[in-house]
Amino acid sequence: FIGSASGPSGQPLARDTAAAWSIAATRSRSVAGGSSGQNSAATTSGSGAHGILSWGVSDDQRASVNIAGLANVSTSGSDAHGLYAQDGGAIAAGSADVTTRGSGAYGIWSRGVSGHYSSSVDIKGQAKVLTLGSTQYGLYAESGDITVGGLADVRVANGSNAGYAKNGIVKPHG
Questions:
Q1: Which residues pair with 152 in a beta bridge?
Q2: Strand locations in the chain (E)
Q3: Least packed by Cβ within 10 Å: which of 54, 125, 151, 161?
Q4: If DSSP codes are grouped into helix, strand and coil, which group holds residue 106?
């Protein structure tokens, strides 16, 4: 795993080289990046090296990642998702620019547990997603929600799918 994350003025937000993500919140924790519209960036490479991960674990141990401005994410590796909210996790950003490269690397994935707890990804403005690999999705909601307030520009390569919802919702704000 190789990863880096930066917030305002290039300051590091979080880095965990033992696990495979750049910006992460787990089990009742919150991580905030950028303020007053400032941007945050996450770049990773390696199998399962997610850009931004919010993993809640359960209803009473929810986690959140909040980026005030642009969440600029680039991942390279199989199953290395750009924005990944799992098991009650929540990710919010002013806007998002996500690029993934690798087999099974989804751009934005909100994955909950049906009937128990749902995850969410909320992009207040525009979401730009580019996936370059095979067997992947630009937006994927599985027992979770993905909300985009502005234009959702989703581009996929190699016969992948732009969006999919399984017991979840992909919707505009409003």
A1: 127
A2: 2-6, 21-26, 30-33, 40-45, 50-55, 63-76, 83-86, 89-101, 108-111, 119-123, 127-132, 137-142, 144-148, 152-156, 161-166, 169-172
A3: 151
A4: coil
Distances (CA, A) of 40 to 5, 28, 85: 7, 22, 17
3-state secondary structure of 139: strand
pLDDT digits (tens, 9 = 90+) for 132-152: 988 889 999 888 899 999 988
Cβ within 8 Å of residue 171, ≥6 positions away: 145, 146, 147, 148
Sequence letter at residue 33: G
pLDDT digits (tens, 9 = 90+) for 13-69: 443 333 445 676 655 455 655 544 578 888 888 899 899 988 887 666 778 888 889
DSSP 29-44: -EEEE-STT--EEEEE
Tokens for 95, please give them: 């806007």
What is the spatial distance between Cα 68 and Cα 82, in angstroms, rounded to a whole number?
A: 17
Q: Which residue matches tokens 């929540």? A: 90
Q: Give the type of residue at 25.
A: A
Q: For tokens 């950028």, what's the residue?
A: 34
